[in-house]
Amino acid sequence: MQRRAGAILSGAALIAGLIPAAPLLAQDSPQGAIVIPDNVTIFTNDNPNVRRATAVVNGAVITGTDVAQRLALILAANQGKISDEEKDRLRLQVLRNLIDETLQIQEAKASDIDISQDEIDQSYARVASQNFNQNIEAMNAYLTRIGSSADSLKRQIKGELAWQRLLQRNVSPFINVSADEVKEMLDRLKAAKGTDEYRLGEIYLAAPAEAQEQVHANALQIVDQLRKGGSFVAYARQYSQASTAAVGGDLGWIRLGQLPAELATAAREMQPGQLVGPIPIPGGFSILYLIDKRQVLTADPRDAVLALKQISVDFPAGTSEAVASAKAKTFAETIKTAKGCGDVDRVAASIGASVVANDQVRARDLPGPLQNAVLTLSIGETSPPFGSISEGVRMLMLCGRDDAQTDEGPSFDELMAQMEDDRVNKRAQAYLRDLRRDAVIEYN
Q: What are phi and psi of 253, to 5 degrees?
């Protein structure tokens, strides 16, 4: 499984206040009411152009503003629904991530790896477009509005690019996966045909022996926030110290044999949408979220593409529940008299119902209860009625179905790449531990 400590960002200057050197007097002077004596004595060393450090990492300053701007991204992702206590924990985690990011950027620079501003700007533009569906100007305004900044996010991008480039140079060339190893894994995959495969999200928190209790407490707080509706992807990006942090903790499709025994045991009992953790594992704790589940090298019925017609009728404002139930029953009985998809429009029109068609609906994209109902239909049959008083009653008629094809699994080259990536990321974790161990870090 891929693990690498995540990276974070940069920031702006804190502006210190100035202490006036003399009282303000209402006199005639070039400054009006402001009178400044000829012999000025500065009573403090406050300089508005000097940033106050939260930490200094090998001489590089991390400020409170840097931390605040990164924290703002997390708060925005969770609509601000985070307690003051949780914010304090988040600040500490963000600082740790900033320290790791600084170490990664410094190590890349020492290895003569340069990340150009053009590369950073291009990646920033992609993030704005793909993740936020905004242009650069709108993205800049959004970040400012939530208390973050473009510079902050660009610093995170620089850290990620620098670390990736560093690993490509100093780690990847020394990782070897033999053809025999890949062949053995392919054979094991084929032997596992029909067994369950899991798509998991993970938040991994490293926990040295002396910090086990504190990290466990932090993990419990994260789980609590996630259960209250927090964004798993946002928390994974900011908290997780696995390499998958950059993709919101998504491990992709894996089999239980690929997981540490502790995680495999937990995942086996999980259902899609379920959150479990923190789970103690060697080196730290993991929080798991089961995104989906399927069977290895077996077609999943939920991947079928359906042609559907939706028939619906609205309820007038003020309709009572009893009247709505009676109308829904009559509606369902009438629609069931339609002789297939070619006849349903006529029948719907006779009772004032509307019909819309879509022939590219993936069964997987339907709500859970409807998935099972629709997948058992034959062509021309309808689902049970569903809806509400405010939205009206609806039924789905199945007009066609393209069943999912059997998954042939990864190719030889794809599997080799996956195995190489796994080994690179394990080596990367050790690499970052060495950087932390040798770093000179001063805290404010």
A: -80, 120
Residues 310 and 344 sit within 8 Å (Cβ to Cβ) = no
Round to whole Å and give the CA distance between 272 and 275: 9
By the 8 A CB rule, do 233 and 242 touch?
no
Q: 301-402 — its CATH code?
A: 3.10.50.40
Three-state secondary-structure class, residue 442: strand
The dihedral over CA atoms of 278, 9, 82, 206, expressed in degrees to the nearest 10, equals 10
User: 283 near 391, Cβ under 8 Å?
Assistant: no
pLDDT tens string 75-111? 887 666 677 777 777 888 888 889 999 999 999 999 9
Structural Rg of the chain based on CA atoms: 29
Fold of 196-295: Chitinase A; domain 3 (3.10.50)
pTM of the model: 0.50
Residue 11 has pLDDT above 50, yes or no: no
CATH code for the domain defined by 1-16+31-189+410-444: 1.10.4030.10
Domain boundaries, the chain: 1-16+31-189+410-444, 196-295, 301-402
